[in-house]
Amino acid sequence: MAPTNLIIALAGIGAAAVLRVLYWAAQFVVYHFWRSSKPLTAYKRVGTDAYALVTGASAGIGLSIARELVRQGFGVVLLGHLPDELAAAAKSLNSPRVRTLVVNARTATPEHISGAVKSISDLNISILINNVGGFPLADPPLRSLNTLTTAEVDAHVDLNARFMARLTNLMLPLLAASKKQTNERSLVLNMSSAGRVGMPWIVMYSATKGFNYSFSMALSRELEDDPATAHIDCLVAVLGEVQSQSNVMAEGAITADVFGSYVVGGIDGAVSRKWREVRPYWGHDLQIGLMDRILPESMLTHFAREELREKKNRWDAIMAKRR
Ligand SMILES: NC(=O)c1ccc[n+]([C@@H]2O[C@H](COP(=O)([O-])OP(=O)(O)OC[C@H]3O[C@@H](n4cnc5c(N)ncnc54)[C@H](OP(=O)(O)O)[C@@H]3O)[C@@H](O)[C@H]2O)c1
User: Fold this and answer.
1) Ligand 1 in contact with 242 (CB < 6 A)?
2) What is the pLDDT of residue 287?
C-alpha cells in the first residue's frame, strides 16, 4: 500500500473509533439523564388498576422499587418471608392497593408457589420484579467455597435461582393474559449483579447471578419470538454495589432507598432501545462497562480480587472480635 493510502486508511479507522466512542457517550448521557416524566405507561391498564409483583420486597432494593411503582400509580404485591416485616413494609407504602404474600423463597415448594400465584390471579398483574436474592449462609458471607456446607451451597441455588425460575414459569400466563388493548405490554425484570462474571469468595452468589443473567437473556429472546408473548418485555438489571441490609460494607455506594427510582426510571429507555440488559444507575454503568469491555482479564481479576479480599479481611476481623 502506498504511504498516502496507508495514512488515509489509518485516519478512517481512527475516525470510526472516535465516532463509536462519541455515539456511546451520547447514548450514555441521553439514557441516564433524560428520562420520561411518565414512566411505564405501556404497563398500565385502561379501565383497571395494573399491579406489580415484587419479590424480596420487605426491605432494600425490592421495597424501594415497590415504593417507586406506587408513586407511578401501580398497585403492588410485596412478597417476603417474614410476616411482620412485610406488614410494616406494606404500611410504609401508604397505599390502598398493596397486598402481601408470605413466601419463603429459599424453602417454598412448587405447591406453595403455585398457591401464592393463584391467590393473586384476581389482580391485573403486568409487572414481575424478580428481586429476591442474597447470601444465604452463616457469617461471614465472603468465604472460600470449600468452607460452605452443602446446605449453604444449595441455599444459594434455591434462593437466587430456583425460586425466580419457578415463579416466572408460573407468572407468565398471568402476564400474557394481562394485555387487553393493542398497546399494552407486560414486563419481567430480573436482578443480576456485576458479580455475574465470577468473583472469588462469593462463588455461589456469583454463579447464581450468572444464572439470573442468562435466564433473562434466553427468556427475552424466546418471548419476543412468539406472537402470544411478544408483548412481554424481559430485562436483566446488572447492579454494582448498593448499600442495603445484605451489603452493609458498601460505604459510599448509592443507597437502596433511592436505587428503586433508578430501576423504575431506567426501564422505558432500555425497552425502547431493545436492550435486554440494563444498568439503571449511571455510576454502575460506567464501572461495569469498564469491566466488561475495556479491562483485560488480568486486570479484571486483579481489581475484583483486591476489592473482594479487602471486604473478606474486614469480615474476618469482625468474626475474630465476635469469638
Ligand atoms: N445490594 C447490592 O449491592 C446488590 C448488588 C448487586 C445485586 N443485588 C441484588 O439485588 C437484589 C436485592 O438485594 P438487596 O441488597 O436489596 O437485598 P436485601 O437488602 O438483603 O433485601 C432482600 C429482601 O429479600 C427478602 N428475603 C430474604 N430472604 C428471603 C426469603 N428466603 N424469602 C423471601 N424473601 C426473602 C428480605 O426480607 P427480610 O428482610 O425479611 O429478610 C428483603 O426484603 C438481590 O437479588 C441482590 O442479589 C444487590
Assistant:
1) yes
2) 93
Q: Cα(105)–Cα(103) distance, rounded to whole angstroms?
A: 6
Query: Per-residue DSSP letters for 175-217?
Result: HHHT--STT--EEEEEE--GGGG--TT-HHHHHHHHHHHHHHH
Assess whether 23 carries a catalytic annotation: no
Residues 6+ apart with CB under 8 A from 223: 229, 230, 232, 233, 234
Q: What CATH number is associated with residue 219?
A: 3.40.50.720
Which residue's CA is the closest to the ligand 1 atom numbered 7?
193
- The boundaries of the domain holding residue 119 are 38-322
> Ligand 1 in contact with 56 (CB < 6 A)?
yes
Cβ of residue 104 lying under 6 Å from some atom of ligand 1: yes
pLDDT of residue 108: 98
User: Can you name the residues that pair with 99 across neighbouring β-strands?
Assistant: 77
For residue 16, being part of any structural domain is answered with no
* C-beta of 142 in contact with ligand 1 (< 6 A): no
Please tell me if the CB atom of residue 256 comes closer than 6 angstroms to any atom of ligand 1: yes
For residue 86, which atom of ligand 1 is closest to its CA? 40
| Residue at 15 is within a domain | no
Residue 31 belongs to a domain: no
Ligand 1 atom closest to Cα of residue 82 = 40
Cα 219 to averaged position of ligand 1 atoms, centre (Å): 22
What pLDDT is recorded for position 94?
97
Total domains in the chain come to 1
Best of 102, 246, 248 to mutate for ligand 1, by most ligand atoms within 8 A of CB? 246
**Cross-strand bridge partners of residue 109:** none
Asked if residue 25 is part of any domain, the answer here is no
Q: Which helix (H) or strand (E) holds 53?
A: strand 51-55
pLDDT averaged per 10 residues, the chain (length 323): 84 90 92 93 95 98 98 98 98 98 98 98 98 97 97 98 98 96 96 96 98 98 98 98 92 96 98 97 95 89 93 94 89
pLDDT of residue 107: 98
